[in-house]
Design a protein that fits this description.
Length: 275
């Protein structure tokens, strides 16, 4: 694959969180954010005039928690949640998840190494602590979805999620690209998981670039070894953009941040998903 170029001033930047901005952890709630990263994201937001969004499988409230005090434009739960710059979170209507929950809880009770995560409009079963149970989880999800309406399975890294049908990261990116400050820019999306492939396809269709974090078959145009390499590229790009803007005397946009003392903390105890 070709080498990854630095971010250009006319880029619309979209970034996955787990496995991309942050390293994966044994349990998703143990993920740590590199201290320098928040400052770099703030600077990138400023120098891209606000054209930066996080596109994640996590709920937006959890993204705010990990990136506090920043509250960036974001798509959560693969696009089922959506927030523009500093705006309210809009949400895809919740499908009928409740009838599925007892069956999934019974599975997790029978296999304690599994973990059930309930979100606002989705539910996920994590098997990172027991990868040998992947087939069992896949079969159980297929079974509970047999008569479900408006729901679909989304496999990821050591997780299978049940989410609203027809929602993915590619659609979220396309929605952002229809309005300012993202429109009329060249999109770039970085992600690591199979759940990010629709995002890679979307930016490619729009004449942009997909960046795979890791190594595997992908429709992304370039790849880097891992999250550390991706963060190093973000740091270098932010410094280069800032130097150019300062030399030209250009002001920058100011990202929305949580009020002091609140800092975007979750409204519940997070059980975040790694996607």
């Amino acid at each position: 694959m070709p080498q990854l170029p630095l971010i250009e001033p006319n880029t619309a930047l979209f970034l996955d969180f787990d496995g991309t901005l942050a390293d994966l952890a044994p349990r998703p709630e143990l993920v740590q954010v590199e201290p320098e990263l928040v400052g770099t994201l703030r600077l990138l937001y400023q120098r891209l005039d606000g054209a930066l969004a996080v596109i994640s499988g996590r709920p937006i409230v959890e993204l705010d928690h990990f990136l506090r005090p920043l509250q960036l434009p974001a798509a959560g739960i693969h696009g089922a949640e959506f927030r523009t710059d500093g705006g309210m979170v809009s949400q895809t209507p919740a499908p009928a998840l409740e009838p599925l929950i007892p069956h999934l809880e019974a599975l997790v009770h029978a296999y304690p190494a599994l973990r059930l995560e309930r979100k606002s409009v989705a539910v996920a079963i994590h098997y990172r602590q027991a990868p040998e149970l992947a087939g069992l989880v896949d079969a159980a999800v297929t079974d509970v979805l047999r008569h479900a309406v408006g729901l679909e399975a989304l496999p990821g890294k050591m997780v299978v999620e049940i989410k609203p049908a027809g929602v993915d990261k590619g659609d979220a990116i396309a929605a952002f690209m229809k309005s300012a400050p993202f429109c009329d820019r060249t999109p770039l999306f970085a992600g690591d998981d199979m759940t990010d492939e629709p995002g890679f396809a979307a930016v490619r269709k729009l004449g942009g670039l997909g960046v795979l974090v890791g190594r595997r078959e992908t429709v992304a145009g370039v790849s880097v070894e891992g999250p550390a390499a991706l963060r190093s590229w973000l740091h270098r790009s932010a410094r280069a953009l800032d130097q150019s803007a300062r030399a030209a005397g250009q002001p920058g946009a100011v990202p929305h941040e949580a009020e002091p003392g609140r800092e975007g903390a979750p409204r519940h105890n997070p059980h975040p998903t790694a996607s």
